[in-house]
Structure to design on (501 residues):
């Protein structure tokens, strides 16, 4: 073997693997956007076949030998190829550590579990989903131990989504948030409520679609490379930087839900669209990590999208689309209504201030499930207890409780912390952006383009060329600290609710 041959083999396999993942991604996207419910069984069967074929390709001796050869000679590779091999090998090592039959069975389990979960949620039937959930947690624990027998399995799972993240770091971060946010939320909850009565009106889906188009325009998203669809759960999927799909869900009695889903997913899309051309088609295209992705999406959703300047910018168009609802409403009233904080049941609809507590609850449950502290059957009860304790809300049913999120059914255990970590990264990045850019003037000019450009230069274009910690330091010049996030929330909500220090 020589480097040229090894690289040729690697690139040829990658091209084929990419085609499989493209096909499977489009099938899943089609299943959740356009296909009738009756398609589920056939799609699952086809996905099983493609997954297995792709797995066999990935595990082939020829590819493994080429990758190992390149890895052993990585000092002789250019920086980009070297990084590709390091990133690719990290994932491949994990898959290689798992016995083939178990890996294939798990892919099939999560495909099936997603459908079972969807029905269980619709019918408030946790019992039907519980055995799947138990199996998913058990398998995740087992796989983590195959991969790193000497590590705490939950740390290994966290590390998949955010390199270097551990339960110890999460405990410190979330402990600090709980300390500051629980009393702050209590003060906000007992303060004079913000009037958002006008937000509880009827907002026809057809008109909300126009608002989505407008918002994607304000965010300067290239519609030639980014489409929008409708799903139960909003998400972003990308098939390369020239084909990004975002989705939203329209609720006719709630305008802000879809509005901020579009801004959130639009943030994910901007990150993908802004990835460097030189990385296209490689494993380093796209985002640096899940937390960096959530950093960007939550940055647009909250720090930008829920800012006074942004609300003032979009308000004329909102009023134009829903003239009867907003007849007597001012831009300031609209801004305040977009930032109402109230402890609630649903994570994705939670306001910026109470949101982290939804994540902390999921984090604590995941951590304790992997540690074997309880069984899937116990989760609904634990869920109810924690919602009462941290947010003071009663959970009336499992549909609005433990069944609300799709993550665990898809096998994502260890993902949730990235949302809050992302929010906190975002607050620290915002401090830097503000030093270098007049953010309010930029937004007031009509679009977020100047902000996109700043983030593009410092974050997007690098793809996954650097580990998230390194990229974060390059961007902010500092280590991560949760204090920026805490100060940001205290200042914003103190002002909105007239809290005196
Ligand atoms: Zn997101």
């Amino acid at each position: 073997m020589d480097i040229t041959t090894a690289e040729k083999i690697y690139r040829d396999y990658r091209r084929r693997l990419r085609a499989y993942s493209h096909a499977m991604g489009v099938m899943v996207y089609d299943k959740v956007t356009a296909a009738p419910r009756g398609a589920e069984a056939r799609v699952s069967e086809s996905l099983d076949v493609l997954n297995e074929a792709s797995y066999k390709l990935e595990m082939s001796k020829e590819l493994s030998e080429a990758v190992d050869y390149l890895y052993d000679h990585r000092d002789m590779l250019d920086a980009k190829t070297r990084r590709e091999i390091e990133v690719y090998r990290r994932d491949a090592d994990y898959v290689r550590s798992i016995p083939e039959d178990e890996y294939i069975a798990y892919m099939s389990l999560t495909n099936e579990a997603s459908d079972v979960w969807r029905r269980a949620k619709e019918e408030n039937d946790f019992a039907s989903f519980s055995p799947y959930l138990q199996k998913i947690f058990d398998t995740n624990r087992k796989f983590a131990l195959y991969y790193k027998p000497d590590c705490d399995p939950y740390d290994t799972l966290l590390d998949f989504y955010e390199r270097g993240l551990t339960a110890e770091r999460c405990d410190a971060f979330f402990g600090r948030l709980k300390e500051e946010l629980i009393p702050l939320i209590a003060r906000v909850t007992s303060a004079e409520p913000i009037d958002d009565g006008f937000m509880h009106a009827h907002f026809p889906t057809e008109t909300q679609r126009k608002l989505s188009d407008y918002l994607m325009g304000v965010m300067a998203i290239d519609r030639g490379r980014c489409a929008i669809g409708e799903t139960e759960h909003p998400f972003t999927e990308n098939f390369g930087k020239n084909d990004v799909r975002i989705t939203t869900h329209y609720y006719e009695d709630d305008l802000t839900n879809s509005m901020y889903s579009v801004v959130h997913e639009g943030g994910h899309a901007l990150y993908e669209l802004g990835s460097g051309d030189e990385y296209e088609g490689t494993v380093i295209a796209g985002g640096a990590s899940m937390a960096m992705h959530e950093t960007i999406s939550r940055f647009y959703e909250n720090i930008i999208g829920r800012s006074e300047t942004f609300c003032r910018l979009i308000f004329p168009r909102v009023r134009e689309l829903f003239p009867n609802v907003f007849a007597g409403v001012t831009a300031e009233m609209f801004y305040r209504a977009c930032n109402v904080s109230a402890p609630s049941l649903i994570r994705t609809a939670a306001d910026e201030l109470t949101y982290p507590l939804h994540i902390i609850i999921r984090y604590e449950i995941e951590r304790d499930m992997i540690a074997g502290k309880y069984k899937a059957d116990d989760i609904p009860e634990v869920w109810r207890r924690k919602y009462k304790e941290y947010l003071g809300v009663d959970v009336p049913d499992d549909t609005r409780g433990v069944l609300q999120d799709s993550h665990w059914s898809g096998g994502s255990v260890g993902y949730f912390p990235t949302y809050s970590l992302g929010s906190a990264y975002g607050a620290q990045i915002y401090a830097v952006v503000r030093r270098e850019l007049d953010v309010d003037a930029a937004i007031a000019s009509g679009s977020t383009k100047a902000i996109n450009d700043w983030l593009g230069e410092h974050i997007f274009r690098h793809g996954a060329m650097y580990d998230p910690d390194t990229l974060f330091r390059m961007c902010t010049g500092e280590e991560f600290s949760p204090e920026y996030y805490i100060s940001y929330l205290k200042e914003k909500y103190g002002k909105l609710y007239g809290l005196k220090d």
